[in-house]
C-alpha cells in the first residue's frame, strides 16, 4: 500500500517534469542562521562584501536589529528561535547548566551527559516539530538539536549535517545549495518545504582571531556570497514566487576587555564554601555549600574589586551585578527557569568574571581559553543585537522596521507556512505586520494532514522528514 502510493506520486512528478512549473502547494521558507553576526558588525561591514545582502534588502525587508533573549548565548537563543518563547518557558537557561538533582552538567552539547533526556523534559514543540507534524518537509543543515527526537517525530538529518560544537570546522553550506533548491522545486507542488541552514564561519573567525583580522573579512565575504548564491539558486529554479528567504543571527559578539577581567576567588575568604561555579565571562552561577548562600552572597556583594568602579560613578552600571536567583529582574524573563544557581553574577558588557580554582566543568575551561570575543551580556546592548532580513512572497520589497525579537521568528514562520503552534509564543507578528504583503492576515490555518498524504509524503521524502508514527 505504502509503496503503491509512493510510486503513484513519483510517477506524476516524472510526468509533470520540472519545466511546466505547476503551482506550489503553499509558501516555502528557507532560513539561514549566521552564528554571531551582530547588527553593529553588519552595519560597519564594507559595502563591497554586502552585495548579496543588499540584493536581498532591495527586494525585501530589513530590521535595524534582531533582539536576542537574555543571556545572549547560543543555546538560550537557539531555543527561543525554535519555540518563540522566553528562556524561562523553554528552560535552556545557558550554554552550560548544572542539574542539582542528578548531579550532571550540560556542556554546549559537547559533554558526556548532554544527550540525557532531562535537559529536554517539558520542552515546548520546536519549529521543526510543529512544521513536520503539519506534513511539511523539514531539512536541517547544522541546525542545533534538529535531529533529536521530539515526541512522535524525528527529523532525519544525516550525521555529517548535524550540528556539533566539538567539530570546529566551518561548515560547507555552499556544496548543498544546488541539491536543496532542486529538491524544493521538484516537490513543492506536493508539499511545502522548510529548509534550516546554519553558517558558523563568522562566529568561528571572531572567536579565534577577533574583529581586526583577515579571517573575519574572509568570513564576512563568504557569508555574503552565501546570501547571494541562495538568491541566485532561487532565481534559477523559479522559486521567487513561492519561497521566502530569511537571513538572521542569534546574537552579536563583542570583545572581552583585557583590563576588566575579575577572578571570583578574589572575593571569597573560604573557597571550600563553594561547591561549584557554572559559566564564566559574561555570567556566572554560584552554588555555595548548603547553608552558606547568605554568607557567600554578602561576600560577593561587598567585594572591593567591582565596588570600586560601580559605586563612584552612578551613571555607569556596576561592573558586576550580584543577584540571588529569586531576586533576578523579571524583565530578563529568565529567573523562573530550572538550572540557575542560587547566586548569579552578571557582568557589564565587555567585562568578564573568571574562576581560577573553583570546581567547574572541563569543556567550559577549554572552550573559554584564548577567546577573543564573547556574548551572554545584556540583551539590550547594541553589540549583542543580531541581524534580520527577509524576502519572498510574504514580504514587501524595500521595507525597513526598527527591530524584531528572536521570539517573533517562530510565529512569523508558522504564519507564512499557514500552520498553528500548540503553544502560544511570547513573541508576535505585531512588530513586523507592516512589512508583510497584503492579505496575509486573512489566511487561516488549515489542517490537511490527512493520513494518505502524510504516509505518501513520508515515503517520498529523500532527505527530509522521517515521520515515525508511534501508535
Ligand atoms: C544598524 O543600522 C540601522 C540603520 O540602517 C539602524 O536602524 C540600527 O539600529 C543599527 N543597528 C545597530 C545595532 O547599531
Ligand atoms: C555524567 O554522568 C555520570 C554518571 O551519572 C557522572 O559520573 C559524571 O560526573 C557526569 N559528568 C558530567 C560532566 O556531567
Ligand atoms: C522550567 O523550569 C521551571 C522551574 O523548575 C518549571 O516550573 C517549568 O515547568 C519548566 N518549564 C519547562 C517548559 O520545562
Ligand atoms: C510566555 O508564553 C508561555 C506559553 O504560552 C506562557 O506560559 C508565559 O506566561 C509567557 N510569558 C510571558 C512573560 O508572557
Automatic annotation (TrEMBL):
Q: Which InterPro entries match?
A: Alkaline_phosphatase_core_sf, Phosphodiest/P_Trfase
Q: What is the recorded name of this protein?
A: Choline-specific glycerophosphodiester phosphodiesterase
Q: Which organism is it from?
A: Panagrellus redivivus
Look up the signal peptide feature and give its range. 1-17
Q: Which UniProt keywords apply?
A: Signal
Q: Which Gene3D superfamilies match?
A: Alkaline Phosphatase, subunit A (3.40.720.10)
What PANTHER family does its record include? CHOLINE-SPECIFIC GLYCEROPHOSPHODIESTER PHOSPHODIESTERASE, ECTONUCLEOTIDE PYROPHOSPHATASE/PHOSPHODIESTERASE
Q: Which domain of life is it from?
A: Eukaryota
